[in-house]
Amino acid sequence: MKMSRLMNETLREVPAATEVKGHELLLRAGFVRQVAAGVFSYLHLGQRTLQKLEAIMRQEMNALGGQEIKMPLVHPAVLWQASGRWYEIDAELGRLVDRNGRSLTLALSHEETLAELARQEIHSYRQLPQMAYHIQTKWRDDPRPRAGLIRGREFTMLDSYSLDTDDAGLDEQYQAHFAAYFRIFARVGLPVLAVEADVGMMGGTMAHEFMYLTPIGEDTLLLCNACGYQANRQVATFRKPEKMRGTEAATFVAEIVQGEETVEQVVTAVFPAGSQVNETKLVHLLDAQRLRLAAGQGSGWWILDDGIDPKVWGTKVDKVGDITAAQEGDACATCGELLRTTRAVEVANIFKLGTRYSSTMNATFVDEQNQARPIVMGCYGIGVTRLLACLAEHHQDQVGLVWPVAIAPYQVHLLALRGGVETAVALHQNLRQAGVEVLFDDRDVRPGVKFNDADLIGLPLRLTVSQRSLTAGGVEVKERIGSETAVVAEDDLLNYITNWLAG
Ligand SMILES: [Zn+2]
C-alpha cells in the first residue's frame, strides 16, 4: 500500500477531548476516526489490524469445532419480548419501528436470535452438542461513551454460543472457551486475568470476565496474592470481622418484577460502618431489576448485611445477606490474607446461561426417553474493537504505537528518501510479490516527517532506502523496538525479512 494513496494523513496535534493515550495514538496514526459519540470509522490501517484479530479468533473458534454463522443486526422485538429482556433492559437497548409499525431492536447481543435458531433447527439429542459463532456489529446506547473504542456505543464482537443436552456438556464447552480465550489473548499480545464475575443482564448461573489490568479501566478487581483468588468487585466476597464496627444505612428504590408488573419497593440497606453497599449483591439478594438511590432514609424493607449480628441490630429485619463491597485490605474469604484492588478493562466474558433463554423461548430437544427438555446454553464474547483499543494502550512508547508482528496492519514500513526512490519502487514491487506486507511511504515529504510517522504508526520493521544507505551497501533496516540499525544488501533483504518475521 502506498501512503500517498491513503485517504488520511497522520495528525501532528493531539485531538481535543482524548482521555486515554492509546486512543490518542489510534487517532493520530490514522487508524480510526470518530463519527459520533461512541461511533467510529475504521480507516485502512485500523481495519487491517481488526482483520488480523478476527482471523486469529476464527482459527481458535474453528479449532473448538465451531461453525461460523452470521446473525442480523436488526431483530424483531418479539424475540426480545419472549426472553423478557425487552422489558428488563432500559434505554441501552436500541429500539425502532419499521414502516409497517413493527417494533425492532438493534443487536445488543445475540442470545435471543441464537435461541430462536435453535428452536427452529434442533429437535433431537442426536443433534447436540453444537457450537456456533459469528463476528458482528452490536449497538448499546451507553449513557456515558468514553475512552474511544474502550466504551463505544457501536462495536464489533466475536460471540459464540454452545448448545448442550446437560450441564456436563456445558461445563466442557465453557472450559474449552476459557482455554481458547487465553490462547487468543496470548497470540494477539494482551496479558489478561480471568476473574469471577456477575451474570448481569445476560442471566445464567456462572460467569467469568477476562480483564486487562490498566489504570484507565472502569472495573475494580479484588486479588489475593496468597491463594490466587480474583474477582470483579461486583461479586467479590471477603471474610467479615467478628467485631461490630458500628453500622451505616442507605435507602434505595428497587424495581422488582412480580408477574407481568414491575413494582417499586423502598429498601434500607444496613452495612458495617466504613464500608459501601455493593449494589450488584443487593440486586441479587432482592431479585430486583435495578436500584436507584432514594432520598428518604430508613424506610421500607430492612436489609441487613450478614456481617452484622441481627440480635445486636434488634429492629425488624426483612432480609439478611452479603451486601457489602469488598475493599482493599479486607480479608480473603478463602485464606484470610489481605485483598488488594486494581483497575481493569473487561475485554471478554463467558456465561453459563443454562436454560435462561431456551426455557423462556421454547428451544427444546427430545431426549433419549422421548421427553422434551430445554437446551442448555452458554455464551462467550470478546469485544473486538475494544481489544484493538487495549492493544493500542498496551503496545506503545513515547513516540507512538509498537505493534507485535501478528497484528500489525503491515509487517514492514518502506521509506523512500532522496536518491533511493527508484530502488524503493522496485523493492516495494518485489517484496509484495514475495508475500511481504509493505506500507510504502512514497510521499514527497521531508525525511523527518517520514521517520516520525513510521514511529507513530509503529510497524515492526522499518526499511529506509536513500543515497546514503545505497552507498553503505543496501537498505537500512531498523526494528520499531530499540534503536539499532543495520544495512542489508538488496539481494539479501527478502531472506533477512522472512527470517526476522519468523523469529
Ligand atoms: Zn486468599
Structure description:
The chain is globular, with a radius of gyration of 27 Å. Strands 3, 7, 8, 9, 10, 11, 12, 20 and 23 form a 9-stranded mixed sheet that branches. Strands 16-14-15-17-18 form a 5-stranded mixed sheet. A 5-stranded mixed sheet has the order 25-24-26-27-28, with helices on both faces. It has 3 domains: 70-145 and 153-235 and 342-384, Bira Bifunctional Protein, Domain 2 (BirA Bifunctional Protein, domain 2); 241-322, no CATH class; 410-502, Anticodon-binding domain (Rossmann fold, 3-Layer(aba) Sandwich), CATH 3.40.50.800. Strand 11 (219-223) and strand 12 (230-232) form a beta hairpin. By secondary structure, it is an alpha+beta fold. It contains 14 helices and 28 strands. Helix 1 crosses helix 10 (384-394) and helix 2 packs antiparallel against helix 6. The model has no long low-confidence stretch (mean pLDDT 93). The site of zinc ion has 8 residues, from loops.
Unreliable stretches, pLDDT < 50, 5 or more residues?
Answer: none
How does the overall form come out from the CA principal axes?
A: globular
Number of helices: 14
Overall mean pLDDT stands at 93
In total, the number of strands is 28
What CATH architecture label of the largest domain applies? Answer: 2-Layer Sandwich
